[in-house]
Design a protein that fits this description.
The protein is of the alpha/beta class. The chain contains 13 helices and twelve strands.
């Protein structure tokens, strides 16, 4: 039996629960960086590992081998073994879930008899549930007993959502948030949160950028305090510390940085740094300047690559949907 889950914390809990089998952490932050469509799992893994290595999150060759081993492990067990998928309601997990289900059916490795899903947004008696890491081994064993076979409509719904996520057309992304899925009931809210990470019509900041910048502008300068203040504002936190730190670092880059640092900027010791808002950052918060008009944009949102501020699709917080500018041919 193979258990597939989001990362190492949940993997450790499953191992300690005593339910048996091996555990495969999926380990990819799909809501940042390139995820273009129509690539094989190997081709996509190579693109993803190159991106992750560019952030300093590992050595490319080692990341490639890790991803290839991950892929082959899933392929091997999917062929003739029981596979249990363990995921949560947040964006990080929901994107991993649709990727795996889409790969299984796209490669005719799916089974409605040997493949099971555990996907929750709450657990009885656990207040403010954030994820599987909030549970203990006894609760994990209870969840295992409640696992449900994955049915064909779920595989198909995931394949459709994955095709939209990897699309270069913003309208296809919006459609995921517009259409609730009975087969994947936690996907719509997670995807809506993904769209809020696109530059806003108000000032060109993502929701995370704006909230982090407001925290910093209020006088909070310690990165760890900024992170915890941000987590407290999220109903379903989906960013780990390194991912959130990359958001802050990116706001410090370029000719018009929105934040400035004092101290060590390394990933290992960033908690010792001090962060402050720049005049440009304050101007963007006021709406006097637009972030991507001022600083440019070169960012992937799944399969959509935004490179020109005047042509970039934006999140309209008032309308609650993406706005796609018309571009003259």
């Amino acid at each position: 039996m193979l258990h597939v889950t989001n990362g190492d914390s949940a993997a450790d809990l499953i191992l300690r629960s005593g339910i048996g089998g091996s555990v495969l952490p999926w380990r990819d932050v799909l809501h940042i960086g390139p995820v273009p469509g129509k690539l094989s799992m190997r081709e996509l893994s190579e693109k993803r590992t190159a991106f992750l290595a560019s952030l300093g999150w590992g050595i490319k060759e080692e990341l490639v081998q890790s991803f290839l081993l991950r892929n082959s492990t899933l392929r091997k067990h999917a062929a003739d073994d029981e596979v249990v998928l363990w995921f949560e309601h947040d964006l990080y997990d929901q994107l991993q879930l649709i990727q795996i289900l889409a790969w299984l059916i796209g490669n005719e490795q799916h089974s409605t008899e040997r493949q099971f899903l555990i996907c929750i947004d709450r657990y009885p008696g656990v207040r403010s549930f954030r994820g599987l890491g909030d549970l203990n081994p006894v609760q994990i064993r209870h969840l295992f007993d409640m696992r449900k076979p994955i049915y064909l409509l779920q595989f198909n719904a995931a394949a459709d959502a994955w095709a939209r996520f990897t699309s270069a057309k913003p309208e296809r992304h919006q459609a995921v948030a517009d259409n609730p899925s009975t087969e994947l009931p936690l996907l719509q809210a997670a995807y809506l949160r993904f769209l809020q990470e696109w530059p806003s019509t108000h000032n060109g900041l993502s929701r995370t950028e704006e909230h982090a910048l407001r925290i910093i502008a209020s006088g909070v300068s310690n990165p760890e305090e900024i992170l915890h203040a941000h987590w407290a504002n999220e109903r379903a936190p989906f960013m780990g510390d390194w991912t959130f730190w990359e958001v802050i670092l990116d706001m410090a880059r370029g000719g018009y940085p929105l934040v400035a640092f004092e101290g060590d900027l390394s990933h290992k010791d960033f908690r010792d740094a001090s962060v402050s808002a720049t005049p440009e950052g304050l101007a963007v918060l006021r709406g006097d300047e637009d972030n991507i008009t001022l600083r440019g944009i070169d960012r992937w949102y799944g399969g959509y690559h935004a490179t020109r501020a005047e042509e970039a699709a934006r999140w309209d917080p008032k309308q609650g949907r993406l706005q796609v500018p018309s571009v003259d041919s």
